[in-house]
Task: structure prediction
Amino acid sequence: MNCSCGFNFALHRANDGELESYAVVSDKKYQKFLKREMKVLKAPQDDPEKRFRLIFKSSRLIGSLQRCPDCSRYCLHLPGQEETIILARDS
Ligand SMILES: [Zn+2]
Result:
């Protein structure tokens, strides 16, 4: 994911860079997300494959909001969508 200023979030993270970042879950799917997260928490610790599958399933409901450290715009990535939405402050 790139910001409209050209900043590359993935490359920054690959170089151990820190970002202001938030998990985003839609209100409509929030209950479903919580149920999936509870299944992750209840999964047996000695079955990492099952835990991984449950985490993957839950993560499909999560998007992200990240602040670009170069230009301060926010980049919103909704779950299940390829497009990145760029949000700029109205000041
Ligand atoms: Zn930027």
Summary: The chain has a mean pLDDT of 93. The beta strands are 20-24, 63-67, 74-77, 84-87. DSSP finds three helices and four strands in the chain. Residues 55 and 89 are 33 Å apart (CA to CA).
